[in-house]
Amino acid sequence: MDALTASLKIAASGLGAQSERLRVVSENLANAQSTGNFPGADPYQRKTVSFVSELDRLSGGSLVEVGAIDRDRSAFPLEFQPGNIAADENGYVKLPNVNVLIEMADMTEANRSYEANLQVIRQARDLISMTIDLMRTP
């Protein structure tokens, strides 16, 4: 496999991984205020993404893949809301363990990584096109 094709494959694996990361971050943000449906119920639990590097024997490069999507085991913050349907007998509601600032930072990082991989694909495509054009020229 030539270097340009290998770079396309590596960048494509990065696009897929960052796309999944963006999906998980979006889900976390969408549920940042989702409490339980009955008194004392646990709210939405933040999800985390971990990546693994996998050797592509054909290209000799390392591809990135989503290793696992886990749940954040940190404690749920409590807030006094006696009128809420999810409030326990003391009037406290468990809130999701989602920190919007952390999620926004994670989204920004994932978006930048996605854009960087997309740029690699564009440049490799341009180089392949230029190579084909050079081969056509007598």
TrEMBL record:
Record localization: Bacterial flagellum basal body
Keywords: Bacterial flagellum, Cell projection, Cilium, Flagellum
Flagellar basal body rod protein N-terminal domain: residues covered: 8-35
Coiled coil in keyword set: no
Superkingdom of source: Bacteria
GO CC entries: bacterial-type flagellum basal body, rod
Limits of the Flagellar basal-body/hook protein C-terminal domain: 90-133
Biological process annotations from GO: bacterial-type flagellum-dependent swarming motility
Chief localisation class: other
Pfam families documented for this protein: Flg_bb_rod, Flg_bbr_C
Keyword Transport: no
Quaternary context: The basal body constitutes a major portion of the flagellar organelle and consists of four rings (L,P,S, and M) mounted on a central rod. The rod consists of about 26 subunits of FlgG in the distal portion, and FlgB, FlgC and FlgF are thought to build up the proximal portion of the rod with about 6 subunits each.
Entry's family note: Belongs to the flagella basal body rod proteins family.
Protein name: Flagellar basal-body rod protein FlgC
Organism ancestry: Bacteria, Pseudomonadati, Pseudomonadota, Alphaproteobacteria, Hyphomicrobiales
